[in-house]
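Please, structure for the following, as tokens.
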Amino acid sequence: MRDVGVLTVANGISAALSLIQGILVARWLGPELYGVAALVMTYPSLVHTFFDARSAEASVKYLSEFHAHNEREHALSISKLGYLVDFAIASLAFLTVLCTVPWAARWIAHRPETAGLILVYAAACIPRALVGTSHATLMTLGQFPLIASMVTLTTLLRVLLVLGLVLAGWQVAGVVWGNTISTMATGLLYGMVAFVLSGCGTGAGRGVPSPQSGGLSAGPNPVAG
């Protein structure tokens, strides 16, 4: 319960920061541009969700079992499979967006000039593919305070980037680029930390909560946070 509480507090802080970001961005951009920014990022997110196999949940289950029995080779195999599946899904989603971006810009965002921004945000899903299996690995190793810290840190990075770029006059592009940079940084951070700690964790025998019970949230609204 203590581990779940740490993650819940981190998600609460993340939600509060995201709420602040959403309110400020909505006021600064106005309803029309705010809506455009939301549509630009919603389309790639929906495409990725359509292909998502939710492999992270399976990774948590099997990694926990193998780690508890000290079956390192099996755990590594599951990790590799998880990364492979996640990267395949992210790549397929990006290719789908790439092929349909003219249509999406015209009929979803209602602004053909936003096609480039849609692709920019879609590209961020590829490095973000590192998050799912890395998060499962860190949970298995019992690194709950570290996960909580990274959730808060990456959310703060996103909020600062988005607000800073919008204030600098980037408007819709600022929202998209702020979210894109922070999403890529999140994927790389999780991947790097999981790689470094994968042989050093001490989570055997500890209960591993599912993502729904207080782990990394499924994903914030890209505009509101």
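The first helix runs from residue 2 to 51. Residues 200-219 have pLDDT under 50 and may be disordered.
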